[in-house]
Amino acid sequence: MPQISAIFWDVGGVLLTNAWDREQRERAIEQFKLDEEEFHDRHELVVSSLERGKISLDEYLQRTIFYRSRAFTQDAFKQYMFSLSRPQADVLEFARQLSGSGKYLMSTINNESTELNLYRINKFGLREIFTLFVSSCFVGLRKPEEGIYRLALEITQKPPQECCFIDDRALNLECARGLGMNTIEMQNLEELRRRLDDLGVRM
After folding, report:
1. Nearest alpha carbon to residue 129 among 137, 120, 142
2. What is the CATH number of domain 22-83?
């Protein structure tokens, strides 16, 4: 078995809570008393553009919420969105330790809007852990599109057999495996440690 030299990480659902997934949107709907069906319909029409970096977070909010007057401000809504991000502290610390070993290239492969992605990178010190951010908003591609994994391999110049990708969604992992990458479905830290150990990944 080739030795693992690069570890690619999803962010939301692995290192941190999700930024703006179904659970977070439902909490915002309840908090701000939005029309659920109307909001979700509008969200689905523009979320791809948001996560590919084609529109800003302000543009997204204008199209999904602030197309009519509200009893709250756009800034208040954005601050609420940012406040929903929380660390998965044990996994984040483990990733920090792996990075500190100096043995592995550490990179993300994640779907996120530019503003939320940068907020989370800054807030949770991700630059201290990762040397590369293959984020949908930066590269214009989203998981599970094959292109985002292929781009990660091309940028790092790593053979897929030397790469491990960690994600909490099966479909994202299937597409990475299709290119020959090793994959781990995130469940908990103990299982992650075990699976990485099976691949020969150690501090």
Report:
1. 120
2. 1.10.150.240
Provide the CA 152 distance to its chain's centre, in angstroms: 14
Query: The tokens of 136 are what?
Result: 């949908």
Neighbouring residues of 125: CB distance < 8 A, sequence distance ≥ 6: none
Cis peptide bond upstream of 160, omega within 30: no
pTM given for the model: 0.96
Q: Enter the DSSP assignment of 10.
A: -
End-to-end Cα, the chain, rounded Å = 18
Residue 140: CA count within 13 A, CB half-sphere: 1
In the structure encoding, which two tokens stand for residue 91, read together? 């996994």
- Can you give the pLDDT of all 203 residues of the chain as single tens digits? 789 999 999 999 999 999 999 999 999 999 999 999 999 999 999 999 999 999 999 999 999 999 999 999 999 999 999 999 999 999 999 999 999 999 999 999 999 999 999 999 999 999 999 999 999 999 999 999 999 999 999 999 999 999 999 999 999 999 999 999 999 999 999 999 999 999 999 98
Domain 6-17+86-198: CATH class, spelled out: alpha beta
Kindly list the domain boundaries of the chain, sorted by start residue.
Answer: 6-17+86-198, 22-83
